[in-house]
Amino acid sequence: MYRTHTCGELAVSHVGQRVILSGWVHKRRDLGGLIFVDLRDRFGLTQVVFHPDRVKNFAVVEGLKYEYVIKISGEVVRREEKTINTELATGEIEVQAAEVEVLGAAKPMPFEIFETTKGAEDEDLRLKYRFLELRRERLKQNIIFRAKMISHIRQYMDARNFIDIATPILTVSSPEGARDFLVPSRLHPGTFYALPQAPQQYKQLLMVAGFDRYYQIAPCMRDEDPRADRSPGEFYQLDCETSFMEKEEFFDLMEPMFIELTEQLTNRRVKQKPFPRIPFRECMETYGGDRPDLRFDLKFQDVSVWGKTSGFQIFQTADFVRALAVPGGARFTRKEIDDEFTDAVKRAHGKGLAWMKYDQGKFDGSIVKFFSEEAQTQLKELLHPEEGSIIFFVADSWEVSCKALGAVRDLAGEKLGLKDPSVIAWAWIVDFPMYEWNEEFQKIDFAHNPFSM
């Protein structure tokens, strides 16, 4: 037998029992002739004490190193009051070892497993030894959380008469806004299968076939540039389809699931119930993106009409001028603005960032000299800036001016501590455009898939 209990299971109720544990040597400490080992498995940590007079093969213990896989047997004892670890689920007990067996020796680790460096090692090194990095608590908890979330989703959907149906992985090309991954056909040389970007056609066929309510945790394969929040080329989504249902009925059906996922699986709360409905265009023109961070209420405004008569040539000739007044932003230094905020605008393909500060009833900044007293008064009436504010401007095309100032908004919220980590602010973004202009291929293309909004 390799274990009678897991390393996260033992408690005071087990005191006096003889147990067998297996796991990894997480930490080792040598104190006064005794050797203390924190033994780790998926479920937690247990402190094991090796006494030279009580362990049959103490020489083996002396040779233990980090990440050795071992099996131990011994007796559960209560810790002394002063040694209790309240941060550990098993912190009131320890195991007095009687026997130890090395199941797998380990070479020196290329980096620390218990994250004293917080994952700061070179990314290539961590990916080379990904199986070691996955032992880290943060990544382990991410994987466990994902499994719990998918299980909760399945229970929720099953309880509402949805059917979990797996659709084909080898399919025909169906443009979904990205390039396809192609798989050559052996039986039909010169022809190709495509990996699905989404199961769109199949779920529509399922509705025609009368299945009424379908869902799956669907793999989506898209030959697109990597993103920070997605695995390159592949991600999974909750894909579903219903018959005989209006949009608002669907929102009412799905909204409780998001609330449950938030408030039952995390320690966060949902900011607003029911979720606000925000039209796509309003969302872009107010927050700068179609998935806005609504935990804070910074909104920007279209000041294009004011810009045309402002006397500032850049604003007068721009397609759109947008302004964001940030209360408390006057504290931002010139270096922060030039190095961080301007860089955020450029990453969003903006040409540049203009700004002025507002304090003691007047504007200040290098561009203020270009505006007449009348123009400044009009700007005050438009924005109603608070004392100690900074006003950021982006002048560009419709899309770029929205996205670039949205990047500024996001950075300002982060730097001012406006993003409450205990809150999630869900919203339904509605009225998406069906098509958009593809600059790369100079053609009209699908925008967001309207069937999955």
From TrEMBL:
InterPro entries: Aa-tRNA-synt_II, aa-tRNA-synth_II, aa-tRNA-synth_II/BPL/LPL, Asp-tRNA-ligase_1, Asp-tRNA-ligase_1_N, Asp/Asn-tRNA-synth_IIb, GAD-like_sf, GAD_dom
Keywords: Aminoacyl-tRNA synthetase, ATP-binding, Ligase, Nucleotide-binding, Protein biosynthesis
Pfam families linked to this entry: GAD, tRNA-synt_2, tRNA_anti-codon
MF term (GO), any: aspartate-tRNA ligase activity
Gene3D superfamilies for the chain: Bira Bifunctional Protein, Domain 2 (3.30.930.10), GAD-like domain (3.30.1360.30), Nucleic acid-binding proteins (2.40.50.140)
A Gene Ontology biological process term: aspartyl-tRNA aminoacylation
Gene Ontology cellular component list: cytoplasm
Aminoacyl-transfer RNA synthetases class-II family profile domain sequence ranges: 146-298
Family: Belongs to the class-II aminoacyl-tRNA synthetase family. Type 1 subfamily.
NCBIfam families for the chain: aspS_bact (TIGR00459), PRK00476.1 (NF001750)
Protein name per its UniProtKB record: Aspartate--tRNA ligase
